[in-house]
Specification:
- This protein has a domain at 231-310.
- The chain has helices at residues 2-14, 19-32, 35-48, 53-65, 69-82, 87-99, 103-116, 121-133, 137-149, 153-165, 173-185, 189-202, 213-226, 242-248, 252-264, 268-280, 291-302, 306-309.
- The two termini are 50 Å apart.
- It contains 18 helices and no strands.
- It has 310 residues and is mainly alpha-helical.
Length: 310
Amino acid sequence: MAAAATALREALRREPDLIQARASLGLALYAAGDLDAAVEELRAALSRQPDTVSARLTLAAVLVAKQDWGAARAELEQILSEKPDLLEANYSLGVVRYAQGDLDGAIEAYGRVLAGDPQNQDARYSLALMLKLVHRDAEAAPEFLRAAQAGHARAQYFAGTAYAGGLGVERNLALAIMWWFRAAEQGVTQAEEALAQLRQVALGQSRRAPADQPAVEQAFRDYRAALWRDFPDLAANGDDTVGGALLRRGRAREAVPVLIREAGALSEPAQRLLETLYEQGVVGQLPAHDPRILGYFNRAAAEGLRAPVR
């Protein structure tokens, strides 16, 4: 970006009226983090050619980065007065209206994005979040679920929250656990924290009412049982684990993430298999000391679970 800015400045020194070069310089400066200089160049480009939509969009993005919400909104509304279906401008307007506390306006903006692009899961998640903030849980939950099913990590966390609290959906703690596991695997720390709290309840180590313990234990059992549905070619056998069945089929690489889920859902057989796999590996399939298993041990030990601590 620094090299681009240098080249563009040289071009403008020679020909100051190169509007596209000035707009590109504003973009380069924005990407390099020089927001004030970016605003100056973009405003200069727009003063000469006000109908340059790309420059105005970039200016709005810079103003959002500066948290100059009023100025950003003015630029976006000017764009949308001429191009009301421009999805990028509508999405940015949703961000600005949310920042200004205009939640109904943000809902409207994100709705327009989804009307034009139903596959925009970021907009769907943002719409669901706005609906949740105005306590329209019955409308928020289906949007969270659609985004979650498409793989949106934050939506998966909130889908779990909806099922855990019965917010817009029927309460189902096993489904909450499922969505929280999926979100945690994508790095959502709040989902891992929610699972950790449930594990403490199930183990009787939480301050929550002891009456919750049987329901949470059952939810973890139901979640472990549901994992079999992901592998219809495997047959459940008593207290067997899905990961153990995969290991017997010679599918060690598939088995590891499943065993980690099962152990995280308080399966002692899965925990023991992970210990063996970590120490010994599987010849020709899985080296010993797999970092994924070590990562699980570290996370579980931090919660104080006995076997991982050992």
